[in-house]
Design brief:
The structure holds two protein chains of two kinds. The mean pLDDT of chain A is 92. Chain A contains no helices and eleven strands. The N and C termini of chain A lie far apart (36 Å). The radius of gyration of chain A is 13 Å and the shape is globular. By secondary structure, chain A is mainly beta. Helix content of chain A is 0%, strand content 52%. In chain A, the strands form two sheets. In chain A, strands 2, 4, 5, 6, 9, 10 and 11 form a seven-stranded mixed β-sheet that branches. A four-stranded antiparallel β-sheet of chain A has the order 1-3-8-7, with no helix packed on it. The termini of chain B are far apart. Chain B is built from no helices and eleven strands. The mean pLDDT of chain B is 92. Chain B is mostly beta strands. The chains are: A mainly beta, B mainly beta. Chains A and B meet through strand 5, strand 9 and strand 10 of A and strand 5 and strand 10 of B.
């Protein structure tokens, strides 16, 4: 099946710093990617929809200035957690929609962020 | 917020037993999906259901899309240790543009 890769798979940073997480579709083009956040023993919560060449659409309650999303190409979306705090520590997962497929989504392997 | 109720929350079974879990929603979905997530990894699609009443199998897994379009179940037959993980249902609205709403998950433990 199609492959979606995230980088880094885990990152530890100091409070107040910014962290960038990449989501790449390796063998298909994705005009739309989705970013989820998952806290321990909880489900995936959609944060935002990333659209290639346009602004991301954020879910209610998600701060767009804190979670910056850039989708500059058909194979790459980035999520930047700005001024990270310990409560931002979470598992961040992206998914990508294959433009040639009828809505099929493929998930990345996730990125574990720990803010000290 | 979450709109899907998934049960049970956790299951502890013996190897070889069959397992059943389900999801219900107050809203109608036009697509139901079932995923498995291993620790520290992203979810992997198990079965996708696109039509009300549809019954689909994938090896030892069987899932059904409820007639009312508000529920779905997943059955695992003859469980094996590698079935351990968290199983999520997810629903998709026709106008959601592929946005998924996930259930709370079912943690499955299989004892050898």
């Amino acid at each position: 099946g199609a492959v979606v890769s995230q980088h880094p798979s885990w990152v530890i940073c100091k409070s107040g710093t910014s962290v960038k997480i990449e989501c790449r579709s390796l063998d298909f083009q994705a005009t739309t990617m989705f970013w989820y956040r998952q806290f321990p023993k909880q489900s995936l919560m959609l944060m935002a929809t990333s659209n290639e060449g346009s602004k991301a659409t954020y879910e209610q309650g998600v701060e767009k200035d804190k979670f910056l999303i850039n989708h500059a190409s058909l194979t790459l979306s980035t999520l930047t957690v700005t001024s990270a705090h310990p409560e931002d520590s979470s598992f961040y997962i992206c998914s990508a929609k294959d433009v040639k497929n009828t809505g099929e989504l493929f998930f990345g392997e996730g990125s574990r962020l720990t803010v000290l | 917020g979450q709109q899907l109720n998934q049960s049970p929350q956790s299951m502890f079974i013996q190897e070889g037993e069959d397992v059943s879990m389900n999801c219900t929603s107050s809203s109608i979905f036009n697509t139901w999906l079932w995923y498995k997530q291993d620790p520290g990894e992203g979810p992997v699609l198990l079965i996708a259901l696109y039509k009300a009443g549809e019954l689909t199998s994938n090896g030892r897994l069987t899932a059904q899309f409820g007639i009312t379009r508000k529920d779905s179940f997943l059955n695992i037959s003859a469980s094996i240790p590698s079935d351990v993980g968290i199983y999520f249902c997810a629903g998709q609205f026709e106008t959601s543009g592929s946005r998924l709403t996930f259930g709370e998950g079912t943690q499955l433990t299989v004892n050898p």
